C-alpha cells in the first residue's frame, strides 16, 4: 500500500493512494508479447478500450486493479472503466469518492475505499481514537450507500508503542468500529505491510500479530488485507498461511518480489499456485493488483490477469 493521503489518494497517510510508495515498481516479460498487441495498445495511438478483448476466462478469482497499474497510460477514468469491463475485471481498488460514480456507471466495484488512520498514525495510537472513530462512521456509511464491500485501516508505526500495547489499543477501537461495520454490512480491513524494506516500524507486519488481533476482535466485519508482496518479504510461507487463516483475510493485494513490479518470471512468487490455493479455500472476496509496471502497462496487466485467472 502507498502512503495514504487524506482526500481520495492513499499516499498512505491513508485514505487512498496517490501512489508514491508503490507508485508501482516493476519487473518484465509478458504472456502476451508486444508484437501480439495492437499498436494502439502499445501507446503509439493512445491506449484505450477496444484493443485487448476478454482476458479473464475462468473468473474464479475476482480481480481488480489499483491506479498505479495503468497510471502511465494517461487514460481517463471512463477509458479505464471500459478497458476493465472489456478484459473481464470486476473493479478498481483504493478509490476515492470522486471515482465512485464512474465505477457504478460501468457496473464495476470499488473493492477497497477509505476507512480510518494511516501508516504512520494508525489504530495503535490511542490518542487518535476519537478522530478515527468519526472517520469510520463517515466512511463506512459512505461505502454502504454505494454498496462497496471494504474500507481500509492501518495499525500505525510502533513509535515507542510495544506490540502488546498496540494490540490492546487496536482492539479497543475496533470493538467499537465493528459495531458500525456490522450494522452497515461493510468489512474493515487492516493492511499487513512489511517493515523490512518499505515501512520501517509498521506494527502489523507479521502473521502472528495480525491474526491474533482478528481473533481478539472476533467479528466477521474485521479482517486483514493480506498484501502478498509485503508478507512474502516478512514471513513467506504464503500458501499454508493463507489456507490456515482464510477466515481472517478479507482482501488481497498482489505484486512481484522483489521490487513490487510485474507478476512475471523475474520475481520469486509463483502467483498461479497462490491463486489456486485461494480458490480452494472458497474465498469470496477480491484480489487487487498493486504492482508498478516497468514495461508497457497494458501488456503487463494482461500478463498479471492471466497469471491469476486460475
Quickly list its features:
about 300 residues; two-stranded antiparallel sheet; about 15% strand; TIM Barrel; disordered N terminus; globular; alpha/beta
CATH topology: TIM Barrel
Supply Rg. Answer: 18 Å
- First-last Cα distance: 24 Å
Low-confidence stretches: 1-47
The total number of structural domains is 1
State mean pLDDT (0 to 100 scale): 88
List the total number of helices. 9
What letter string, H or E per element, gives the SSE order? EEEHEHEHEHEHEHHEHEH
Overall, the morphology is: globular
Strand content: 5-15%
Topology, number of strands: 10
CATH architecture: Alpha-Beta Barrel
- Can you summarize the main beta sheet? 8 strands, parallel, barrel
Which strand order spans the largest sheet, edge to edge or round the barrel?
3-4-5-6-7-8-9-10
Structural category: alpha/beta
Give structural notes.
The two termini are 24 Å apart. Helix content is 34%, strand content 14%. The N terminus is likely disordered. Helix 3 packs parallel to helix 4, helix 4 packs across helix 5 and helix 7 packs parallel to helix 8. The chain is an alpha/beta fold. The protein has a single domain, classed as Divalent-metal-dependent TIM barrel enzymes (TIM Barrel, Alpha-Beta Barrel). The strands form two sheets. Strands 3-4-5-6-7-8-9-10 form an eight-stranded parallel barrel, surrounded by six helices.
Secondary structure layout:
Elements: E1 4-5, E2 16-17, E3 62-65, H1 77-87, E4 91-93, H2 100-105, E5 109-116, H3 129-146, E6 150-153, H4 163-184, E7 187-191, H5 207-217, E8 222-227, H6 228-234, H7 238-245, E9 249-254, H8 271-280, E10 286-289, H9 297-308
Parallel strand pairs: 3-4, 3-10, 4-5, 5-6, 6-7, 7-8, 8-9, 9-10
Antiparallel strand pairs: 1-2
Helix pairs in contact: 3-4, 4-5, 7-8
